[in-house]
Amino acid sequence: MLGKRILLIVGGGISATKIPALIRLIRAEGAHVTPVLTAAGAEFVTPLSLSVLAGEAVHQALFDVAAEAEIGHIQLSRRADLVVVAPATADLMARMAAGLANDLASTLLLATDKPVLIAPAMNVRMWQHPATQRNLATLRGDGIALVGPDEGEMACGEYGPGRMAEPGAILDAIRAALAPVPLRLLPEAQMPRGPLAGRHVVVTSGPTHEPIDPVRYIANRSSGAQGAAIAAALRDLGARVSFVTGPAQVSPPEGVAVIAVETAQQMREAVEATLPADAAVMAAAVADWRVVNGSDSKMKKDGTGRPPALEMAENPDILAWISQAPQRPRLVVGFAAETDDVIAHASAKRARKGCDWILANDVRPDTGIMGGAENAVTLITAEGAEDWPRMTKQAVAARLAARIADALA
Ligand code: C5P
Questions:
Q1: Ligand 1 lined by 282 (C-beta under 6 Å)
Q2: Pairing between strand 279-282 and 200-205?
């Protein structure tokens, strides 16, 4: 969340008193908070307390001449990475659903082009009212994310759903909303138990696509089959798996957090966002180069008969980077797809990249390994090289997952 900007709209409700704690949590993560206080919100929490904690001015009025001169409300809603409404009252939700813009908060919500997360808080009857549920369905349909409400004792003495989610839960929802794609983890209770329970493993998989223009890209023949099998095998041993995948031919397994990316640069950033992790398995076939003189519009033949000269730059090496990252996982595993002198090249690669293990395989076309169902690998560690017999990619994955579990035990 470091450096991210959160526009925090504070509605009117007793739970507005929890917002200072939320601001503290967000700022502790290194993100910026710009508070916007509705007229009703100001009945529960003072602008001064919000601005002191946020370290920024609080915006309150739609037609605040000084503020408009400095930064208009459109910009205010667009320079944020995420808009959070907490507490989101029944009235605010209704105005959002109807597209009203009759105060600063509702205007910002209508003018924004950024993701919006709401944390509803209201009396249980108001929450259960068909009008609120209708508005909620509309907001969900508009792609707005929701956290809470919780069930419990209400300030008004009634019991039921309607309490605003706790600041910690709102922070988690903010983190998820800022993640590149939604997480698809199994609920804790459905996680398989196993030797990797409580461990977090990040796995990269698939090819990357390096764009040339909006319709063309440079890619490779990796199917993503081996990476997906490894993620599934780690999950089966109870690990929490972050699966960072390029555009692969095989679907990601169920029960892992999927982060879909296209380019090597996006893959590196996505991997970094998953850290800390106990282990990393870098199975992706990352493109070594990207095009730096690509075009935002489709490139056309210019009639001269001369093709465009594509200029390339080297992509980040994710395996080498994670092997020396400040948050280096305890165990880093790489792959080496080689066509000759497999063990010598792979051993040199292990040393050069600084990873702990390399799974080396022979990808000469006659082996049928690239894109095929089977794999024949050699595990190279500091202790030496260990040939595994030819087996399915699932069997390689299961054997690797078991070795990882041993190493982390
Ligand atoms: O250097 P080479 O591409 O052969 O290395 C293969 C290993 O390095 C694989 O584990 C692959 O996932 C990883 N790699 C990477 N980032 C790159 C290139 C390769 O993580 N840019």
A1: yes
A2: parallel
User: Distance, CA 230 to ligand 1 centroid (Å)?
Assistant: 16
Q: Are 322 and 329 in contact (CB under 8 A)?
A: yes
Mean pLDDT of 152-176: 87
Give dist(CA 244, CA 185) in Å, integer: 13
315 lines ligand 1 (CB under 6 A): yes
In a domain, 360, yes or no: yes
Q: Please state, in angstroms and rounded to a whole number, the distance separating the CA atoms of residues 330 and 307.
A: 47
So what's the pLDDT on residue 184? 43
> Exposure of 316 by Cβ count < 10 A (0-12 exposed, 13-18 middle, 19+ buried)?
middle
- Of residues 86 and 141, the one with the higher pLDDT is 86
CATH number of the domain enclosing 296: 3.40.50.10300
Q: How many domains does the chain have?
A: 2
Pocket probe for ligand 1: among 281, 335, 379, the residue whose CB has the most ligand atoms within 8 Å is: 335
For residue 119, tell me if it sits in a domain: yes
Question: Tell me: the pLDDT tens digits for 78-98?
Answer: 889 999 999 999 999 999 999
Reported as a single tens digit per residue, the pLDDT across 190-199 is 667 799 998 9
Candidate of 222, 245, 318, 342 to mutate for ligand 1, largest count of ligand atoms within 8 Å of Cβ:
318
pTM above 0.85, yes or no: no
Rounded distance from Cα 335 to ligand 1 centre (Å): 7
Specify the range with the lowest mean pLDDT, choosing from 31-45, 71-85, 338-352: 71-85
Kindly give the distance from the C-alpha atom of residue 286 to the centroid of ligand 1, in angstroms, as a whole number.
6
